[in-house]
Amino acid sequence: HHLLRLDNSTELAPNAPCHASEIVSFFRLCFLLFTRVYSATNSAFIFILDAVEFCMTVELKTGEVGDMQEKVVRIAKLAGEKIWELYQGIPLDVQTKDDNSPVTDADLEANQIITNGLNEFSDLPVLSEEALPDPEARKAWGQYWLVDPLDGTKGFIKRTGDFTVNIALIDNKAPVMGVIYVPRTGDMYSASKDNG
């Protein structure tokens, strides 16, 4: 997979801190690269950027986020492989959610893979587009996983190939790690607070 550095001219020390502003720069770069490849924009980049710009502080210990990053990369790849398997099968089972947006078996199965995978090594709550928790309970979350198991369901249904798996770790309202996997190409984009 492809692991992008925040600055190709700078080698980061193994435990060097990666500030939230650098994470913003990384995701802006990913967004530009993504829109050059695909015609549709990816909402995952937008909500990650919004969260970073809202609050620039992080509280997780150095090294802790980096340790989780490799596990999340594997989980995203597993979910993406299942999505691609279902993408190649016919027919698609498409349903409509309460907000009138479409949802498929691929959304739900990828969500299950991601949730189960995260729960194997983390006890943090998961906020997913396919399993929204009670808004009041969510207010008390200091740290949680932010997941869109299949970002681009409409592209999936239309068979454009334009969809991704998105997983981010949020700490004190700021993203400290993000993983984006593109099932069609197998490209993986990943960055974290201490392992850009």
Please outline the helices and strands.
Layout lengths: L19 H18 L5 H12 L9 H24 L6 E3 L5 E3 H17 L4 E3 L6 H4 L4 E9 L1 H6 L5 E8 L2 E9 L4 E6 L4
Parallel strand pairs: 3-4
Antiparallel strand pairs: 1-2, 4-5, 5-6, 6-7
Strand order of the largest sheet: 3-4-5-6-7
Q: So how many helices?
A: 6
Main sheet attributes: strand count, strand direction, barrel closure:
5 strands, mixed
Please state roughly what percent of the residues sit in beta strands, choosing from under 5%, 5-15%, 15-25%, 25-35%, 35-45% or over 45%.
15-25%
DSSP helix fraction = 40-55%
Shape: globular
Mean pLDDT: 74
Cα(first) to Cα(last) distance is 15 Å
Report on this model:
The protein is globular. Mean pLDDT is 74; it is low at 1-20, 35-41 and 50-58. The protein has helices at residues 20-37, 43-54, 64-87, 105-121, 135-138, 153-158, and strands at residues 94-96, 102-104, 126-128, 143-151, 164-171, 174-182, 187-192. The chain has 196 residues and is α+β, with helices and mostly antiparallel strands. The chain has a five-stranded mixed beta sheet with strand order 3-4-5-6-7, with helices on both faces. The chain contains six helices and seven strands; from the N terminus they run αααββαβαβαβββ.
Quick recap:
By secondary structure, this protein is of the alpha+beta class. It is built from six helices and seven strands; from the N terminus they run αααββαβαβαβββ. Residues 1-20, 35-41 and 50-58 have low confidence and may be disordered.
